Amino acid sequence: MKIDKDMKKIINQLLVIIVFLLFATSCEKDFLKINDDPTNPTSATPELVFPAGVGSAAYVTGGWYQILGGLWAQHWTQSTGAQQYRDFDAYDINTTTLDDRQYGELYSGALNDLKYVKTVALEEENWTYFLMATVMQSYVYQVLVDLYENIPFSDALQGDEGKFTPKFDAGADVYKGIIAMLDEALEKDLTVRTAKTPGSDDVVFQGDMSMWIKFANTLKLKIYLRAATANATWASAGVTKLYTDGAEFLDGDVTFGAFANEQDRRNPVYETEYDRFGAVNIVASNTLLNFLSNNSDPRIDGIYNTPKAGGVHVGLDQGDFFNPAFTSAANISQPALTGLDPVIFMSAAESYFLQAEATVRTWGTGDAKALYEMGIDASFDHFGQSGASSFYGSGGAYEFPSGGSIEDKIEAIIVQKWVALANFQSLEAFFDQNRTGYPDFFTISKNSSWGPTQFPKRLLYPDSEYQTNKANVPTLKRVYEKMWWHK
């Protein structure tokens, strides 16, 4: 379904506003506050507000959070000759590292807009928009809870009721709350007369409600599996019910791609890295590059470009941004990104790997080996490469360990998922490595601020929370302290 001219104009205006707010270096740090409602869209329709909520989510999760994930998942590292992300790469994280322009935007932008859509849709019994907004809200909450652990959830987004100091819910409770939200939305009848058929304002699936249902189910599957070690009873029961109920999972990507090759309208990582900063900050990490090179994996050419000089792939060890052998990034491989690349909230490859893990744990049904191979196929396709079967076939470098232990199989799945999510879902790759310990060949940053043994595990709440909601903010933890679901 094509996007009409009026909707294109609205989306373009939204993109310019969001990009300016998130990336302009002259912005005040406190321009966004949790539960603020700067737009006060009391007369707007869900059709107009929904694209704004999705765009807000896309520019944060596909922008600065993707960059953080790229570095902490060791897909990327900070280049020499530049310094924008040295703090990220050295694990030198404090309460101002990622401030209100990300955390605050997700609350007062994405989540607030999506709440408005849900509220109006509930009043009108417009269950299509209720489902769409709920799924996107759930996705945003999942990202936040996996970055910070305890977050405002049950008390959040109540500024219109005078509640500006929400309590923080425990991560495990937020997980259960997200599942409850999704279940409520999935139980609605999308065929009733009051359920409007979405059009071009559905900037994710263009009105295909079957894909929204698959997105919801796959998001539930991910949440259950992330809790697999910490609360196996709850996780196994939840996954088993998904399969018993005949849930269908994603077989395509969930994207936001309303971009154009113009300033302020391009992919947010590309916009930041190649337009805002001028100097190259992001280059190939040897952790991923060497893995691909050692296995003669052709995806290396889809994930990284070749340096301007030499014609071969060259990377840096993680955090080695003072390496005297490279005075600039000119001779180091960089991520193969374009301004028109969509932000991907969830991919087909991730879905297949999640299903494979569920089956390996015996909570789901299906063929774990086949699902694992489908994930690799999807990854090869995404990076424009062929010949995946020669890698996972008999004797191949990525052959599924059918005769191995459950842990052997989970390791194989997570390592391949880690490769598949490079460049566009790196934050999820970081979460999985944090959860499982795979890949187990990560290296400590050469310039780690903590010494030789500690990897990052979480972000710290921004200063604004301590300034405006001090009584409710949890005790400050170290960045290397484990999350509640950590293995």
Folded structure, characterized:
The chain has 17 helices and 6 strands. The chain has a domain at 5-261 and 341-347 and 421-468: Serine Threonine Protein Phosphatase 5, Tetratricopeptide repeat, CATH 1.25.40. The termini are far apart. With 487 residues, the chain is mainly α. The longest helix has 27 residues, at 46-72. Residues 1-13 and 16-41 have low confidence and may be disordered.
Summarize the structure.
The chain is built from 17 helices and six strands. The chain is mainly α. It has a domain of 312 residues: Serine Threonine Protein Phosphatase 5, Tetratricopeptide repeat, CATH 1.25.40.
Spatial arrangement of strands, main beta sheet:
1-5
For the termini, the CA-CA separation is 44 Å
Report the top-level CATH class of the domain at 5-261 and 341-347 and 421-468. Mainly Alpha
Name the helicity range.
Answer: 40-55%
Gyration radius (Cα, Å) is 22 Å
Sketch the major β-sheet.
2 strands, antiparallel
